[in-house]
Structure formats: structure tokens, C-alpha cells
Write a sequence for this structure.
């Protein structure tokens, strides 16, 4: 099994475990580690008062980037052998092109959570060196895998606040771990 295959299997497994617990779960940070040639995921639930996981991860990335003291504590708290970081969360989305346009036009006056064609989805995102992976499941549906890599012909770019923040966090962790 290749490294990529192992990561895909791991994320699909994490999503399946989370799915067994049902919906409306609190977000969790994933800490991807390597041990004895195996990849595993440690799941660390975010504090209960965190209402917006994307906002939290974005602020965490900023704090780690600007505060040397906070950065050192954060990295030390993760432990050794960090391969990547991830997030398990739920969000609202719209998928049909007209609904996307409606949301883009009205985002300031009506959040996506109030759109009549909204769908709830679970997102398991992970950033590892030179690769992002994401498993999404629309409530009532099956998981779908998205990924990108250094070779853009293999996947598609995963964009948004969460993947960008995870990449920022991972870069800081790796820069400290490699020194």
C-alpha cells in the first residue's frame, strides 16, 4: 500500500467512525502521526464552546504564526512524529450553480445556513506535506474523496479557510520539528 493509499484509507476510516456516532458532533482536530511505518490519527475534540471550527483553526494558525511562545507550546503539545494535521467538522453547503450564485450575492444578509437549498455535510480535511485530502459526506449520502497533490493532474485543489489554515499550521510544526 502506498503512502497516499494509506492516508486515503485512514481518512475514510475516520469519517466512517465519526458517521457511526451520528451528526451534530463537535469539531475535532486530527493529529496524523507515523509510528513504526504505520500512519494513525489521534482525534482531539475542540473545546465545546467553539461554534465555528473554520474560524477557530484560522485563528489558531494566526496565533501560532505570530507568537513564538504559543507556537512552542502548540508544537510541544502535539508530540513527536507529526505527519499532518486535520479537522473533522460539519458545515452547510449548496451545490447547484444557481444556489451558489444566490449565496454569493446574499452572504452579507443571509447566511448559507438559512438558504432553502442548503445541505449539511461532514468534512474530514487533512494537510500532509505537499498534499491535501478531504472526505465529505452530505447528510444521508455516501462519502466522497477530494484530494490534490504536487501533480495537479492527479487531483484538484482543495480551497478554503480550513485547508489553508491547516497548511499554515503544518508548515510551522514542520519548520520547528525539522530544526
Amino acid at each position: 500500500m502506498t503512502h497516499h493509499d494509506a492516508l486515503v484509507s485512514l481518512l475514510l476510516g475516520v469519517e466512517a467512525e465519526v458517521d457511526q456516532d451520528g451528526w451534530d458532533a463537535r469539531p475535532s482536530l486530527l493529529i496524523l502521526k507515523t509510528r513504526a511505518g504505520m500512519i494513525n490519527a489521534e482525534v482531539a475534540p475542540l473545546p465545546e464552546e467553539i461554534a465555528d471550527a473554520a474560524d477557530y483553526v484560522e485563528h489558531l494558525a494566526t496565533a501560532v504564526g505570530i507568537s513564538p511562545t504559543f507556537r512552542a507550546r502548540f508544537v510541544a503539545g502535539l508530540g513527536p512524529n507529526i505527519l499532518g494535521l486535520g479537522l473533522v467538522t460539519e458545515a452547510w453547503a449548496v451545490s447547484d450553480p444557481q444556489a451558489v450564485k444566490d449565496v454569493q450575492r446574499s452572504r452579507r444578509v443571509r447566511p448559507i445556513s438559512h438558504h432553502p437549498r442548503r445541505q449539511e455535510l461532514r468534512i474530514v480535511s487533512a494537510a500532509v506535506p505537499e498534499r491535501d485530502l478531504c472526505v465529505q459526506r452530505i447528510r444521508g449520502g455516501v462519502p466522497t474523496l477530494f484530494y490534490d497533490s504536487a501533480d495537479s493532474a492527479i487531483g484538484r485543489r482543495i480551497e478554503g479557510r480550513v485547508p489553508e489554515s491547516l497548511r499554515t499550521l503544518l508548515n510551522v510544526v514542520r519548520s520547528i520539528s525539522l530544526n
The chain is about 40% helix and 30% strand. Helices lie at 3-20, 53-66, 68-78, 97-106, 161-177. Strands lie at 28-35, 38-45, 82-93, 119-128, 131-138, 144-149.
